[in-house]
Specification:
- Residues 7-166 form the Flavodoxin-like domain.
- With 172 residues, the chain is of the alpha/beta class.
- It has helices spanning 17-31, 69-79, 88-94, 119-128, 154-168, and strands at residues 6-11, 35-40, 54-60, 102-109, 137-142.
- Helices cover 34% and strands 19% of the residues.
- β1 (6-11), α1 and β2 form a beta-alpha-beta unit.
- α1 (17-31) crosses α5.
- It is globular and about 45 Å long.
């Protein structure tokens, strides 16, 4: 009997939109029989669990890439909340991700135009740096305006993507 695949979703979220997408992806994974857990990058361990089948990384797009301390501070002021001084960029720098681990990446964006940039593409560059990894599954989810909300249908699309990721994981 095959065991249920395990997935870890590590995110950075400033206004809650990226977290909503991550929770929907986790629900889709669970729908398909996987075990999924969502952690903020600031709380995620630098050493990944040994029995991990799928790692999903997500972040909002800030200034055409991953959030920085400055953009987090600005977002925190907009949201009226204290901003963490680390996030996805810093987690990637301190974490060793095995080359054999199946990985998927997503971001939230205000436009799907190439001019808007992509946090997901920045994550992929970080994954490739020194690791020689192939491009993982990548997905962008649309947010209406800088602080949201998510565009219509994006949460459902995230859940569907989660189901598809579970189906493509070798242990399912």
């Amino acid at each position: 009997m095959a065991t249920a695949p395990t997935a870890l979703i590590v995110i950075e979220s400033c206004f809650g939109n990226t977290r909503t997408i991550a929770e929907a992806v986790a629900a889709g994974l669970t729908d398909a029989g996987a075990q999924a857990r969502v952690l903020d990058a600031v709380q995620a361990p630098a050493s990944l669990p040994a029995k991990l089948d799928l790692l999903i990384l997500g972040a909002p797009t800030h200034n055409r890439g991953l959030p920085t301390t400055a953009t987090r501070t600005q977002a925190g002021k907009q949201a009226g909340a204290a901003a963490p001084n680390s996030g996805m960029r810093e987690w990637l720098a301190r974490t060793t991700i095995p080359a054999v681990l199946t990985t998927a990446v997503f971001d939230t964006v205000t436009s799907k135009s190439w001019l808007s940039g992509s946090a997901a593409k920045a994550i992929i560059k970080a994954l490739r740096r020194g690791r020689g990894r192939d491009a993982p599954s990548i997905r962008s989810f649309l947010v209406q305006g800088q602080s949201g909300p998510l565009a219509d249908g994006e949460e459902a699309a995230a859940r569907t993507w989660g189901r598809a990721l579970a189906a493509s994981t070798t242990n399912v």
